[in-house]
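Hello, quick one for you while I still have it in my head. A protein chain has come my way and I'm curious about its shape. I'm sending you its amino acid sequence along with the C-alpha cells. I'd be grateful if you could look everything over and explain what you see. Here's the protein in full, and shout if anything looks odd to you:
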Amino acid sequence: MYIKKYDFNYSRRKFVEKSLLGAASAGVLTSLWPMIARSDSAVTDISRAYPDELLSIEMHTKGKVKPGDLVTADNVEYVAHLLDPIALEQVKTMGRRIRIAESTRDLTKLYPHDYLEATVRNAGKARFDAAGNVRAPDGGPWLGGCPFPDPKTAEEAAADMVLAWGRNDWQMSATRDHDIDRNGDIAYQYDFVWTELQVTSRTDGQVFQGRDDLLRYNSVWFTRPDDVNGTSYLNTWYYDQRKFPDLLGYLPAFRRVRQFPTNQRFEPLVPGMVLFLSDAWAAGDPMLTWGNYRIVERKPMLGAQNPGNFMGGRDNWEKPVHGGPKGQTFHETVMELCPECIVLESEPVGFPRSPVGKRTVWIDVRNQLMVASVTTDRKGEVWKSFEPQYAQYSNEHETFTKGGKPAWSWTGVMIYDRLDGRMTRYYVGKEVQGGYKTAFETNDVNDVYNRYMTSQALQRLGG
C-alpha cells in the first residue's frame, strides 16, 4: 500500500498554523523565495514548495473540477471556497462561467522579465523607515522589483502592491471599456489610455529626472465617444505614502486644466463607470492613508493569472463576453489554482467621509499581486469587487514583446457594484481611437514624460 507523506489536509493545517504564528514564509513544503533567490539558483519552478493538491485543481477538488472545465452554477460548489463572495454570487445567480487551466509553476510566466530579475537581485534589501515608507539600505527610495517578495507582515504585503502597479517602468495600455447597467444593457462605451511612468522603484535602478521625492506619474485620457474625447487626468504620486497625489484634470467643456481635490478618490472618472481612483489594483491610494492592515488568513484561491487571458490572434485582442441578463456582463476569464494567497484586510483611515468601510484583498504570493478585492460599505454590506486578469502576452497566435522577451501585464479588469447591479469591464487592446497603441518600452523616456505626464500635455491631449 502506498502511504502519502502529505495527506490531503496537510496544507490546510499548515496554513492555519502559519496564520496563527503571523510571520511566516510563502510555501508549504519549503520556503518559496529563499529557494528562488539563492545567488547560485536558476530555479523558477515552484513545485518543490507546494504539495500536489495545491498545484492541481483536479486533486484539490478530488476530481470534481479539472483543467479545461467550465465552472458554472452546476458545479461551483466544488470551488466555492476558492472564490471571493462576489465572484461566487455571480456564478451562482448571474450566469457567469470561469474556464479552468493548469496552475502556472514557472515564475517567469508571472512577471515582466526585468521586474523578476530586479526582485531576485534586490531580495532582502528593503526596510521600513520610521514613517512607514519602504527604503533601500542607504535610506534612499526602493531599488526596483518587489521589495518584500516573501512578505511576513500585512504592511509588507501592502507595500508590494502599491510601489509598482503594472510592474513595468513605463507602459501605455490602449483600453476599451464597456459599462453595463443592472438590466444587462451597455449604458456607456469608452476608449481610454492608461499610462504609468515609474519615477523611483524602477527595474533599471535609476531615478527619473532625479526626483527621488516622487513614486510615479499616472495619466488617463479618453478618446471616445466625442462628448468625452479629450477628458484627461494626471496623478503625480509622492514617494512618501502619507501624502496624497497631486491630481490635475482637463475637461473639454471648460477648456482648461484644473486641480481636483485629491482626497475625493471614491467617485467615477466619467459617467457610468464603476471604477474609482481608489480601486486601482487595490492600491489606488497612498498606502499610509489606509491602516489597520492585518493578514487574516492564508489559503489557496482561484485567480486569473493565466496565459489564457491574452487574446493574441483576436481582432484588437477583444475579450469574449457572456452572462448577465443580456449575455454581455462578464469577460470570458481563465483562472487557475493559486497555491497560496494572503488574505489582507485594511480600512481607509485617512478618509473620514469614505463610503468604504473595509477592503479585503487576496494576494497571490507567487508574484505579490492581488487576484481579487472586495469592499464593504460603512454598514458592513458587501459592495464592490475589483477583479483583474493578467497574462504573459504570448500564445500560439501572437507574441507581443518587451526587450526581446514576451511582455507581461494586466489584460482586463471587471469591477462590479453589487448594490447597484452595474458592471464596468475593460480590456487592453492593441489600439484605441486616436491611434494610441499599447506599448511597454520606449527609446526616449523624457519624450514620454513630455507628451503624457505634464499639465501642458493634458491640454494637448484635450485639444
About this structure: Residues 52 and 59 are 7 Å apart (CA to CA). The two ends are 75 Å apart (CA to CA).
